[in-house]
Amino acid sequence: MNQDYIDWLYGLSAPMVALNKESGASYTSPFFFPGYEYIDMQKDWGIHSRETLLAMVFNMVDDGHATALSKHYFMYPRLSALDWLNYTEKQSDYDKVLLEFVEQTYSECGAGGIRSWDYARMGYILRNGITNKFITEEEALWILYRIGLRTQYYYSSWQSYFSGWFVGYQYWESLTNKEDLERLRCDLCRSSQTWTMTKLYTDEDSPYHHLPWHIEIEELEKPESLMEYAWS
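== DUF1266 domain-containing protein ==
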């Protein structure tokens, strides 16, 4: 397998690397934190075994945080201004705030919306899973290959992929303010992780600098050890 292709697959978790670079995170190693022998994922993720890791990944890739907004990102460019207004007026007050957010961020991440927020985090989990010996590198690469097909379908560049992650981070940070809609509206307009985006574009190790987005997605054979799972 071409090394650039492997680096590209691990590069799908690049936003999480930028977020954790000072703690030793790597863009290209199979191990997210090469210097660690074990990563505790129980507290933040509830992951403590192979089964819980795979269940999390297979669920979150297609049914994660992005699902709350994916329909809106899909419809926004397909409706006229008047039809979008009519569509908005039929929504709850809470959803109207989210639709404003979609309007404001569509130009950054496109129809893919915040799917990369889920994709990058699952790449992070898979690479930590290799460290913990919950899964093999072969298994992780096959799952990342399937995620990679999704990313190239929904995003046109590293920039739009990174932006989708950043917008997803904004959305996730704001979820605690569902009852205070004005506070939610304000929180969706800003994020504390702007510096992470800067790192993605300035760090010479970032895939942004040395790997094309439109790399050929090499088909990988599904490992026998994953055949019991219907996910693909």
